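quick q for whoever's on today - can somebody do inverse folding on this one?? i tried earlier but teh output was garbage lol. tokens:
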């Protein structure tokens, strides 16, 4: 029996960019909605854990393209975005943060994390911001999760 090991790129620039942007988000927000009825303080320890999880999520999503059934120009394959979404939601839940989806201001932390990380992995040539609503709703509606 042989096992294959997944190797993800160790892109120090991507790691640094994700780390800086996630730290800036946590410092500007100070709090996020928790899994319970209250809010959770984004302490330096919690921020460090979130940064580590987002760097890992970014390297997984950016490791290689996962082709769709029909190749089309435009956005990256839905599969890569769904991997990123699932990693973000799992990270939020494991840290006691709500993976709730609020797309209007103030956006939920899961949505803001997706926008930050996706814009670093897949920069848009026209400079438009990422709208995660369609991808989040597709993953939720189809019960699509990463294995």
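ok took a stab at it. sequence:
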């Amino acid at each position: 029996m042989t096992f294959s090991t997944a190797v993800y790129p160790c892109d120090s620039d991507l790691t640094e960019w994700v780390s800086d942007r996630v730290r800036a988000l946590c410092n500007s927000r100070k709090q996020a909605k928790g899994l319970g009825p209250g809010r959770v303080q984004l302490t330096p320890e919690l921020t460090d854990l979130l940064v580590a999880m987002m760097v890992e999520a970014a390297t997984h999503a950016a490791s290689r393209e996962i082709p769709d059934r029909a190749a089309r120009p435009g956005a990256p394959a839905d599969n890569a975005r769904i991997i990123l979404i699932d990693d973000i939601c799992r990270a939020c839940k494991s840290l006691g943060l709500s993976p709730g989806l609020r797309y209007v201001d103030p956006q939920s932390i899961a949505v803001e994390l997706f926008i930050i990380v996706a814009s670093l992995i897949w920069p848009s040539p026209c400079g438009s911001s990422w709208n995660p609503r369609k991808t989040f709703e597709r993953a939720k509606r189809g019960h699509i999760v990463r294995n």
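fwiw The mean pLDDT is 79. also The radius of gyration is 15 Å. so keep that in mind when u check it
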